[in-house]
Amino acid sequence: MSKKATKYELLAPVGNFINLRAAINSGCDAIYFGIEGFNMRALAKNFKISDLNQIKKICDNESPLKKRIKMYLTLNIIIYDKELKKLESLIKKVKPYVDAIICWDIAVIQLCKKYKIPFHISTQASTANTETAKFYKDLGAERIVLARELDLSQVKSIKKNVDIELEAFCHGAMCLSISGRCLMSQFHYGKSANRGECLQLCRRPYTIKDNQGIEMKVTNNQVLSAKDLCTLPFIENLKKAGITSFKVEGRNRDPRYVSTIVKIYRKALDKKLTEKEIKESISELEKVYNKGLSSGFYKGLPTSDDFSKVQHSAATEKKQYVGKIKNYLTKLKVFIIKPTNEFSINDKILIIGNKTGVHESTIEKMEIKSNEASSAKRNEEVAIKLSTLPKDSRLRKNDEVYILIENKK
After folding, report:
1. Computed from CA positions of residues 129, 133, 136, 138, in that sequence, does the dihedral angle turn out positive or negative?
2. What is Dmax (Cα atoms) for the chain?
3. In what helix (H) or strand (E) does residue 170 lie, and over which residues does it extend?
4. Which of 269, 292, 270, 267 has its CA nearest to residue 280?
């Protein structure tokens, strides 16, 4: 009798409705998101309480996996006394909508217990050993998001000794500080990372000088900027280590990033990839935002090779805005656009919209004034037919259109 396959959860970051649909359409099992005022991405666009009903409808009904997508709310900042009443009011309001709250402040934990809402311990708690894991389990946690500073053997040890669900990051940005608890923004600008206000000063290039003003020559002046975590080459080891939920970092990322990462890790969780498939998938990951890819702490302590050599992005592709869809002809499956940039037949196209989510395709056919064309110029109204359409076979007025081009370094 064959052993039943273990079901792994793919947890996607969501910061707006476009990213929500991008994550769901690409195959996530669950999403995590913030509400204005109480999460670690205070400087990003966050959902409002009034959005929860619509988020739940989408999660309940729109998954291509034909199942309900779980909703995890992040309330993972430090809480002050003056905020306790507002916090309690928020928790009461979100109860009908969320499957769990990701937190670590004891005030949030106690309120979750009071209102019988499941809670997951945030990576901000830096859970890195079995005794801490046991403590949170005894406190009532359903799941622990492990500290990022663990190697695979340490993950295995915690799972072996504590009967609790484990969640771990599988892809995305890495903080130089311990589990994101950095004070650089606070010291320099009075912006607390532990209140979701990180300005990412670590990403800047730095000059190293001694107290006499003598400058040190360094090979890479991105001395505080870590490469992004990528576990795809050894994800089978993470499965064996006992991880239940595989978490993608990136609530500040664009929809194409979310769509690409979720699609690739969906495949990797559903089956064991071949070496060829891993290589091809890495190439796809490198097309979207990244600062270089690293194994993080999972295979041992990071080395100098795990520091980024770029200030912004090392992505091999970039998107160039073309314009918005003026009209979509449903029967013909053609959209009309007046482009702000030139493009041609066979160009790679990216469509982004609130209801459409993210769709990549190529230009199959173009017509200008009812005549076939091989290219279109700026401000020249053109009808375009793509080689593929989204699963609902439609695009929408005001969807944004981009061409994807090589990002030449």
Report:
1. negative
2. 73
3. strand 165-172
4. 267
Q: Which two tokens stand for residue 44?
A: 């990003």
Q: Which amino acid is at 64?
A: P
350 pairs with which residues across the strands? 360, 402
From the number of C-beta atoms within 10 Å of its C-beta (0-12, 13-18, 19+), residue 4 rates as exposed
pTM exceeds cut of 0.70: yes
Which helix (H) or strand (E) covers residue 64, if one does? none
CA 334 to chain centre: 31
User: pLDDT per residue over 22-35, tens digit each?
Assistant: 999 999 999 999 99
Give pLDDT, residue 27: 96
CA distance 124 to 145: 8
What pLDDT, on the 0 to 100 scale, is given for residue 45? 66
Is the four-CA dihedral 220, 222, 224, 230 of positive or negative sign?
Answer: negative
Residue 88 is encoded by which pair of tokens? Answer: 């309690």
Domains defined for the chain, CATH in brackets: 9-306 (3.20.20.70), 317-406 (2.40.30.10)
Inter-CA distances, 170 with 49, 175, 249, 283, 307, Å = 29, 14, 8, 17, 18
214-252 residue pLDDT tens: 887 677 778 888 999 999 999 999 999 999 999 999 988
Q: Work out the number of other CB atoms within 10 angstroms of the CB of residue 261.
A: 31
* Closest to 196 (Cα-Cα) out of 36, 344, 311: 36
Where does 83-128 have alpha helices with state H? Answer: 84-94, 106-114
Q: Any idea which residue has 């090979």 for tokens?
A: 219
DSSP letters, 177-189, are SGGG---HHHHHH
- Angstrom distance (rounded) from CA 159 to CA 153: 10
Burial (0-12, 13-18, 19+ Cβ within 10 Å), 242: middle
Q: Which residues of the chain have pLDDT under 50?
A: 1-5
Cα separation of 328 and 372, whole Å? 18
Whole-number pLDDT of residue 4: 45
Return the amino acid letter for 32.
Answer: Y
Token duo for residue 87: 């916090």
